[in-house]
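#lab-general

N.A. 3:47 PM
ok so I finally got the sequence cleaned up, no stray characters, all 190 residues accounted for. can someone with queue access submit it? mine expired

B.Y. 3:52 PM
send it over

N.A. 3:53 PM
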Amino acid sequence: MAVDDIEMKTVVVPVGYPKERLRKFDVIVLKALLNTHIGFMEEKGITGLAIQRLMDRKGAAIVVCRNRYSKEWLDSLIPQLKRRDGRDLRIADLKETVGGGGGEIQAILWVPKHYINDKEYLTKTLAKENPGLETGHWVIKSRKNKKTGVQIYINQDDVSCLKKLNMEPLFERKRVKVEIAFPKISQING
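B.Y. 4:20 PM
back already:
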């Protein structure tokens, strides 16, 4: 079984994902917790459970199981687990994570300079003024050494919606431009 076998991957996220994300420390604690559970199950005589790999991917933990039995066990265990602060965990679809399954599309959103650091206002205003445009899962980063524009990571559905708006959504009742940086717009279906 290849490590990239999507059927053996379980994506673990906080209940509030994507607004709430796992920290690196949370992923380390999760890995230790899962290994402890596997050890406990082996003591009870239940063998065959194995985790091949656990990766931290932008606020989500991607657990690669060695076999289907381990995956089914893990999928039933995750909803019972809690983070170290007592909040619940859940299983997410790989597509739900930004960049999962090749869905990561990098773009530049050209907005006035004074909005670059207010990412929450930026996403809420775009969603409010452009019906159908979902911005809650967007990852927004400042562009190093650039005075305008923010780097955004969006999915295929966002690109389709933006194309309907001619890649110029409304922001504070004015048109702002979105440019696809990666992959090239000609490579994107829709």
